[in-house]
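Appendix B, example 12.
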Amino acid sequence: MKLRRTKHAGWYEVMTACPICGHKGWCRINHEQTIVHCMRVPSDDYFDSVIGRQFRHYLDPNAVPQTKVEIEVNKAVEKKPDHHLNRVYRALIKELPLSPQHYEHLLNDRNFDPDVIRLREYRSMPTQERYKIAKSVINRLSDQSDLLGVPGFFCQEGRYGPYWTMSGSTGLMVPFRSITNEITGWQIRVDEPPLELAMKGAIKGEILEELERDESGKRRARCQLQIQDKKLLVDLTEKDKKVCNSKSGQFVFSIELKQGQRYWWWSSGSKDNGASIGGPLPVHFALPHPCLKYWQVGQTADTIMDCSEVWVTEGPIKADKAADGLVKPVFGIPGAGAFSLLLQPLKELGCKHVVFAYDADVVKTPEVEMALEQCVEFFARETDMAISLAMWDISQGKGLDDLLDNNLIPKISTLLE
């Protein structure tokens, strides 16, 4: 089990599979490994945090961990205030390009107009010579220390001493804007998401190495599996699910090689003099793109357009698309359970009505359905805002962006008057 220290003494973020839900990240475990704060599997014992509701699960204190525990050494520093992050990130925008590959993706796959792509200020994380970009950013600022406490930047030891560079996988970079048009963080849509094993039942396994793609272009990996007392080396192909049933027809196990998480925070919390993106996590606020020409840094969005009704969806690109398609202000939150992050900015905007527009499969996704119930409960307790849910048939588009691309609009159902 791989753990990362958190700001809360004696608690660690689970960077491998959570003992309760089996997913990576977000969930936490205490030093004694007797209590897990799981973000996905409900229990009667829970509390609300800035990243969503956390459910307490109690483990058997006499159980011996089956895997070696590795704790990441935390060399990070505190994240700087938003105004400082905005200053550094706007200098970064002037130094980073948008690759032809990512431009084509936004133009053809996302159906953005060229002018919208320019105004939204998407960028690309390069593969090589990132230290040169960091150096150019420093030259635009006043001092090398300006990168200290800015998520994404970190110090690396070189032949002639430490130097600043940038973390993260190669991919499309999407800026997160605050309600005052400060850029407070980025997410990277990685070009090559990591592969992972989805396993159920009496099987354990790990990926040893990625292999060449097959003739159809599917990704492949060499894996080590453990089935009861037997260890096997097998080559698996992406999306080729293997299911094993007993002679009597009972389920024994299943395994599938899948593409992992596509969107990642641009962060450097595990690096020397880096900074974590959390504390708190950014939320992205999108206005229709024509507003961006007139929206000054530090200017609250409600002075640009009416914010009495605000829409909420998951993800920054989807929020950008929705703001243009609906001609409404739209929040893009980092996950369905992160609704509590919206409370303060919604109040500052003078919002009276919040419309949640999660993907059309919300009724089929227990985690999202649960988060929505928690959200209504939270807003009923904390505010007098009306809450609605945008709904549509999945055949019309999975996400709100797909629906709007098909020139359709969702139906609105009131959840809280």
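The first strand starts at residue 2 and ends at 5. The first helix runs from residue 82 to 93.
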